């Protein structure tokens, strides 16, 4: 529903969802856009970093090796081992890839000159959530067999029979609709809203700077808040990469467990 | 000034998840303050609860743009 209030603030175009539709940088090639380029760049950066960090592995680690290993052990010990349990080792590559890929792509949102979080285009989180969706269902079906797996989802043991009328639809919706949807939308919405927030403060500050003398004075405050929010975003970006990986690990652990 | 009433509605809808998130982390901080060694056990639980509560805010955000 659109509403029209008395016209104030003419001239300033508030940033909106349209600012995320970047034109392709090669004319006529629809998929050659900045987010795609950033996704490929992130793969290159991550590969180079971890190859360099692990190439000259020594017992007394260099600074680079220490940095690479602490990221790896954070995912391996903190996420995979603690949550999945004794079968964690075969999921570490997936979780580690997921964490670093999301983390670097989120950081692109505040790295100068790049400044566009790849994950604020919803198709990237969709694909990542779809992979997680297939992984945890595949793991569950392989572990328990298709019939038992679906039965465990639909009829949670230890519940009075009458409750199944309510519980079964909710459980089915949770496993097949809500989980992949929220997993992708959480990442997307956080990156989208965060980028929009920074746009509001920096574009707003710029607009104030162009305005009358009174407005010029308040403009630095807009920039200051924008810079503070950039640091806040830095934290949110790490947190979102962590949460995506954490939830993936939890879903895998749930599919592996004999009883939910 | 032009705008959409949906966003006002979304602001109202976000109150619930906001309170929920606050309560979850308050409980988490309480727990860690009382028993610091329980931190690694509580952390995934806290973030799982946070993720579930936040999901409601996300549905609101999506609907604010879609409707």
UniProtKB/TrEMBL annotation, chain A:
Keyword Transmembrane helix: yes
Transmembrane segments: 36-53, 91-111, 123-141, 162-181, 187-209, 221-254
GO molecular function: proton-transporting ATP synthase activity, rotational mechanism
UniProt membrane topology term: Multi-pass membrane protein
Record keywords: ATP synthesis, CF(0), Hydrogen ion transport, Ion transport, Membrane, Transmembrane, Transmembrane helix, Transport
Cross-referenced SUPFAM superfamilies: F1F0 ATP synthase subunit A (SSF81336)
InterPro entries recorded: ATP_synth_F0_asu, ATP_synth_F0_asu_AS, ATP_synth_F0_asu_bact/mt, F0_ATP_A_sf
Protein's cellular compartments: Membrane
CDD domains named in the record: ATP-synt_Fo_a_6 (cd00310)
Pfam family, one: ATP-synt_A
Cellular component aspect of the GO annotation: proton-transporting ATP synthase complex
Predominant subcellular localization, coarse grouping: membrane
Gene3D superfamilies for the chain: ATP synthase, F0 complex, subunit A (1.20.120.220)
UniProt family annotation: Belongs to the ATPase A chain family.
The protein's name in its UniProt record: Unannotated protein
From TrEMBL, chain B:
Main location: membrane
UniProt-listed SUPFAM superfamilies: F1F0 ATP synthase subunit C (SSF81333)
Entry's localization field: Membrane
Keyword Zinc: no
Gene3D superfamilies per record: F1F0 ATP synthase subunit C (1.20.20.10)
Transmembrane feature ranges: 12-33, 45-66
Keyword Glycosyltransferase: no
Record keywords: CF(0), Hydrogen ion transport, Ion transport, Lipid-binding, Membrane, Transmembrane, Transmembrane helix, Transport
Domain (V-ATPase proteolipid subunit C-like): residue spans on this chain: 10-67
Gene Ontology MF terms: lipid binding; proton transmembrane transporter activity
Signal sequence residues: none
Topology in membrane: Multi-pass membrane protein
GO biological process entries: proton motive force-driven ATP synthesis
GO CC term, one of those recorded: proton-transporting ATP synthase complex
Assigned protein family: Belongs to the ATPase C chain family.
Cross-referenced PANTHER family: ATP SYNTHASE LIPID-BINDING PROTEIN, MITOCHONDRIAL, ATPASE PROTEIN 9
Name of the molecule in the record: Unannotated protein
């Amino acid at each position: 529903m659109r509403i029209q209030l008395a016209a104030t603030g003419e001239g300033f175009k508030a940033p909106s969802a349209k600012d995320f539709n970047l034109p392709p940088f090669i004319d006529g090639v629809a998929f050659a856009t900045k987010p795609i380029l950033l996704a490929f760049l992130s793969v290159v950066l991550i590969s180079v970093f971890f190859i360099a960090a692990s190439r000259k592995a020594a017992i007394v680690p260099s600074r680079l090796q220490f940095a690479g290993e602490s990221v790896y052990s954070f995912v391996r010990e903190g996420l995979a081992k603690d949550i999945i349990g004794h079968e964690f080792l075969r999921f570490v590559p997936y979780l580690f890839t997921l964490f670093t890929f999301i983390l670097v792509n989120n950081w692109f949102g505040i790295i100068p000159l790049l400044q566009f979080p790849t994950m604020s285009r919803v198709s990237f989180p969709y694909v990542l959530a779809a992979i997680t969706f297939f992984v945890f269902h595949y793991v569950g079906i392989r572990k328990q067999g298709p019939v038992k797996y679906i039965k465990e989802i639909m009829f949670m043991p230890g519940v009075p029979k009458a409750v199944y009328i309510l519980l079964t639809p909710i459980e089915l919706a949770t496993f097949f609709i809500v989980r992949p949807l929220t997993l992708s939308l959480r990442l997307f919405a956080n990156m989208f809203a965060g980028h929009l927030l920074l746009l509001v403060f920096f574009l707003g500050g710029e607009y104030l700077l162009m305005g009358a003398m009174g407005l010029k004075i308040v403009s630095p405050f807009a920039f200051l808040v924008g810079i503070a929010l950039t640091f806040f975003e830095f934290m949110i970006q790490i947190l979102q990469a962590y949460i995506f990986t954490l939830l993936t690990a939890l879903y895998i652990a749930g599919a592996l467990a004999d009883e939910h | 000034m032009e705008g959409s009433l949906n966003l006002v509605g979304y602001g109202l809808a976000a109150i619930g998840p906001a309170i929920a998130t606050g309560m979850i982390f308050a409980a988490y901080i309480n727990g860690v303050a009382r028993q610091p060694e329980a931190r690694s056990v509580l952390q995934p639980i806290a973030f799982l609860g946070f993720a579930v509560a936040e999901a409601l805010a996300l549905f609101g955000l999506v609907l604010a743009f879609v409707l």
